[in-house]
Amino acid sequence: MVWFDQLLKYLATLLQSAGVPDDKLSIAALAVVYVAAIIIALVLVLVLLKIAAKGGKKDLAEPGSVEDAGFEAEAEAEAEAEAEAEAEAEAEPVNLLARFHAGVSRTRSALVGRVDSLLRAGRKIDDDLFEELEEILITADLGLVTTRTLMEALEKRSKAEGLSDAAQLRSSLMAEMSGLLVDADPITPDSAEGPFVLMVIGVNGVGKTTTIGKLARRFAQQGHKVVLGAGDTFRAAAAEQLVTWGERAGVDVIRHAEGADPAAVAFDAARAAIARKADLLILDTAGRLHTKVNLMEELKKVRRVLEREIPGAPHQTLLVVDATTGQNALTQARQFDEMIGVDGIALTKLDGTAKGGIVVAIACELGLPVRYVGVGEGAEDLQEFSPQKFVDALFEN
Predict the structure, then answer these.
(1) How far apart are CA 267 and CA 261, in angstroms?
(2) CA-CA to 139 of 20 to 30 Å: which in 18, 168, 193, 260?
(3) What average pLDDT does this structure show over 214-233?
(4) How far is CA 203 from CA 197, 296, 362, in A?
(5) Would the CA dihedral through 95, 99, 102, 108 be positive or negative?
(6) In degrees rounded to 5, what are phi and psi of residue 384?
(7) 165 CB-contact burial (10 Å; exposed 0-12 / middle 13-18 / buried 19+)
(8) How far apart are CA 152 and CA 163, in angstroms?
(9) What percent of the chain has pLDDT over 90?
(10) pLDDT at position 4, please?
(11) How far apart are CA 114 and CA 137, in angstroms?
């Protein structure tokens, strides 16, 4: 077995450092394994004997103690349930973090994996190294502007701090990249001043409606009352898809017939959110190309309707972009921001691409925060974006 051979090799290395002769290493390693197995077996026997002794005491209990035993069993069951709940609560963040790290694995290989190969031990920091590093950053979809920003900062830091070691340059790149990312406060709906309105926009095929469904589930599980507005009246079955997500999340969905005026859906959804005292209204919108001016004007009309019905609405405009499109996602974000106004980004399909560097490009060139990232198909795989967590996951060894 491979693992057993590796264990023996590891033990042999330890024993060699302890002074065991080379010709006795294999036998000594086997002896250590044999002794450890005996100890484990003895411990198991003692545990079984202890359990058996407890069982014997229960059998010798007085007949009149059946009721007490029932209460004890019930208390033990409650304690076990509480322990399981605590274990699940502790395990969930760990699982989410593991999924996030797995989600950025392709970007890590394409970006940091190549950087680490470049900054191998003993590599001299010079102009050639900086040129190669610049090429890696550009091809990892950070883009020219963001790459130049990072390279200028690294060159300046290298001169100021006298960097001479490749590991120091790696740490500097990590720090500069983290500094470019925008950290945003989480969305916290509060119905005290009326529903919080989140308008979701984006082109077709980026996972907009699915993102809305996952957000609805997230906020509903946090105890918020959520209403969804099926404003995508152009795409066939878009409303039905949102209704399905609404049923899963246990939230209301306001919809019209296919082909209806999106502004009318926005009006009814706003009125329903107010009447039902909802904490949050999430409005879906039709997917449209960022180059189609007439369709962008329709979004402006929807915004005006929302603002008329709920002062300050939409309080957040979330643009959904597909990470696999790389620099095209940056172009979409720029166009939508200029014409409609964008407050944050939801980056989907991050787990399916090596172009995750676009996260840094969006923050650097547009100053927009990435609020959510999709790292899988499950509802829990839409996660709040943390700049520090993202950089740590990228640069983990």
Answers:
(1) 10
(2) 168
(3) 95
(4) 20, 11, 17
(5) negative
(6) -65, 135
(7) middle
(8) 14
(9) 50
(10) 64
(11) 10
Question: 71-107: per-residue pLDDT in tens?
Answer: 344 444 444 444 343 444 343 444 766 877 887 888 8
The span from the CA of 382 to the CA of 323, in Å, is 13
Residue 310 Cα distances to 130, 166, 224, angstroms:
52, 55, 18
Find out whether the peptide bond into 314 is cis, omega within 30 degrees of 0: yes
Region of 259 (left: φ > 0; alpha: ψ -120 to 50; beta: rest) is: left
What's the chain's average pLDDT? Answer: 83
Report the amino acid identity of residue 54: K
Half-sphere exposure of 42 (CA within 13 A, CB side): 6
| Geometric angle at alpha carbon 219, from 215 and 221, rounded to 5° | 115
Residue 285 contacts residue 229 (beta carbons within 8 Å)? no
Please state the pTM of the whole predicted model.
0.74
